[in-house]
């Protein structure tokens, strides 16, 4: 089990704030600054997006940030280079999120090895099916002490959720609806029934809710049903405001927390 993620959830069972940003956006070399500023502002866990030209689960905001990041020259190699000293500066849990294709091109074992070297705690690859993970990659991930985080949706059958729970060791990403990221409709009643259903299953892994969490209200509502929530598109938008990166990060995070 991965220690940084495990100890985070052991210390904090409720109200955990996770933030997603796309590496290489707005500027190529913003990665470390964004991570350190998020930590300084009280974020608990960070998801670093590896940009990809065809992101299935991402809404327009994150897709656009991916396009800019790729034009800026962001690659998986570049990202690992940027993160090589990050553990001398912070112990915040870091999760890489991206798609299988670029990881396979980089080489899955080489990817796991580099991720472990720079101190990454977990990996989210939404398009890697559970069965393929278990048969082909689980041993590798465990060898390098990387938590594999899976997404579940309101449509995921109970048996599949239990299978995911028994094959993972970090947290489970509860997608609030079956749409893409960045839709800001709050949490519908049907989502609440789904969160309650998952909570009643008493899974061994904690749950974190994502997709559509964009302000203090939706964050608090999500935290009623899970250990915490993930904010992505709304934060990526905040990074594009006028003013300094530090100021934009600080005012956005404080608007969620206070």
UniProtKB/TrEMBL annotation:
Q: Which organism is it from?
A: Pontibacter cellulosilyticus
Database matches in PANTHER family: TRYPTOPHAN SYNTHASE ALPHA CHAIN, CHLOROPLASTIC (PTHR43406:SF1), TRYPTOPHAN SYNTHASE, ALPHA CHAIN (PTHR43406)
Which pathway is it part of?
Answer: Amino-acid biosynthesis; L-tryptophan biosynthesis; L-tryptophan from chorismate: step 5/5
Q: Does the keyword Lyase apply?
A: yes
Reactions this protein catalyses? (1S,2R)-1-C-(indol-3-yl)glycerol 3-phosphate + L-serine = D-glyceraldehyde 3-phosphate + L-tryptophan + H2O
Which HAMAP family does the annotation name? Trp_synth_alpha
* Alphabetically ordered keywords of this record: Amino-acid biosynthesis, Aromatic amino acid biosynthesis, Lyase, Tryptophan biosynthesis
Q: What is this protein called?
A: Tryptophan synthase alpha chain
Example of a GO MF term: tryptophan synthase activity
Q: Name one GO cellular component term.
A: cytosol
């Amino acid at each position: 089990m991965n220690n940084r993620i495990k100890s985070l959830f052991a210390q904090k069972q409720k109200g955990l704030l996770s933030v997603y940003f796309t590496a290489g956006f707005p500027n190529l070399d913003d990665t470390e600054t964004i991570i350190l500023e998020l930590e300084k502002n009280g974020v608990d866990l960070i998801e670093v997006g590896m940009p990809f030209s065809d992101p299935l689960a991402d809404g327009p905001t994150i897709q656009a940030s991916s396009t800019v990041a790729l034009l800026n020259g962001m690659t998986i190699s570049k990202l690992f280079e940027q993160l090589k000293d990050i553990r001398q500066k912070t112990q915040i849990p870091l999760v890489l999120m991206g798609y299988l294709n670029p990881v396979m091109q980089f080489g899955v074992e080489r990817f796991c090895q580099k991720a472990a070297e720079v101190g990454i705690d977990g990996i989210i690859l939404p398009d890697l099916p559970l069965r393929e993970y278990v048969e082909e990659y689980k041993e590798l991930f465990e060898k390098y002490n990387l938590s594999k985080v899976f997404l579940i949706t309101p449509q995921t059958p109970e048996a599949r959720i239990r299978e995911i729970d028994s094959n993972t060791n970090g947290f489970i990403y509860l997608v609030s609806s079956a749409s893409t990221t960045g839709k800001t409709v709050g949490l519908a009643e049907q989502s609440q029934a789904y969160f309650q259903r998952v909570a009643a299953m008493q899974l061994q892994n904690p749950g974190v809710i994502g997709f559509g969490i964009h302000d203090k209200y939706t964050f608090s509502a999500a935290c009623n049903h899970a250990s915490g929530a993930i904010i992505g598109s709304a934060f990526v938008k905040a990074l594009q405001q006028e003013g300094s990166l530090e100021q934009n990060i600080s005012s956005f995070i404080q608007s969620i927390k206070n």
